[in-house]
Write a structure and sequence with these properties.
Distance between the termini: 53 Å
Strand order of the largest sheet: 1-8-3-6
CATH architecture of the largest domain: Sandwich
Structural class: alpha+beta
Mean pLDDT: 86
Low-confidence stretches: 228-238
Number of strands: 11
CATH class of the largest domain: Mainly Beta
Number of domains: 2
Strand content: 15-25%
């Protein structure tokens, strides 16, 4: 059963534009909404990958927990974003965890619905290729700033990554993330994230506000290296 909020999200999603009215109505009927508390699993490694999930409201951190307790975070999926399409393209379980970082509402499209669209709608396939390419570009960028850039630049690139028009079409200039959440997504401590945010604020790229940050210069965030940092010097120190 769909809620009004879920139906609205489905109808406003970029991929919905590839469907006929009848196809979209059927997707809405077959989908359902799910609420996940903060710290709960939106999806869990090892469990069957049987849903394509959209974030109606909230934030989900995609990560892998290692046996020694360490956690490797890939990305965060915010309001309006979709996740899980890669796992649905092949049979098997989830290979990563999706943990809600705050109370989160999910739109859940069943695997059989996703597979039907995949096998019958060429425009949906084209959207999916674009979506997966955007996700791949994001991951390559994340690897770059994780390995080559300093903490300030990592926070800048993490925030900038939330503005991809394919992955996050509903993004606004205000990013509703706590400093804890920014630290987790950037793989730095809360204290280091705080320092980075104020450095970026001094650079005129954003404004730190209650409940999040207002992005003032997206291009500047995407290209930020820091006053003394560069990819070349960072690479030389490895």
């Amino acid at each position: 059963m769909s809620s009004n909020a879920m139906e609205t999200m489905l109808r406003e999603s970029l991929w919905a534009q590839t469907l006929t009215v009848e196809e979209l109505d059927r997707v809405i009927r077959e989908s359902h909404e799910r609420e996940v508390p903060a710290g709960g699993f939106a999806l869990r490694r090892g469990e069957p990958a049987d849903l394509w999930i959209g974030i109606i409201e909230g934030l989900v951190k995609m990560s892998v927990s290692l046996a020694d307790g360490r956690v490797s975070t890939f990305t965060g999926v915010t309001t309006g974003g979709w996740a899980g399409e890669g796992s649905l393209l092949k049979p098997g379980p989830w290979r990563y965890d999706g943990v809600a970082m705050r109370p989160t509402r999910l739109a859940c499209v069943p695997r059989h619905t996703f597979e039907r669209l995949l096998s019958t709608n060429i425009e949906f396939n084209r959207f999916l290729l674009s979506h997966i390419n955007a996700r791949l570009s994001l991951f390559i960028g994340l690897m770059e700033f994780d390995r080559l850039l300093g903490p300030d630049a990592r926070v800048a690139r993490c925030l900038a990554s939330l503005f991809d028009p394919v992955l996050y079409p509903q993004a606004s200039s205000f990013v509703r993330l706590s400093q804890d959440e920014i630290g987790l997504l950037s793989a730095v401590s809360r204290q280091r994230a705080n320092r980075a945010l104020h450095e970026l604020e001094r650079a005129g790229l954003l404004r730190v506000e209650h409940g999040g940050v207002e992005v003032l210069d997206l291009a500047g965030l995407r290209g930020y290296l820091g006053e003394t940092e560069s990819v070349a010097t960072a690479y030389a120190r490895r």
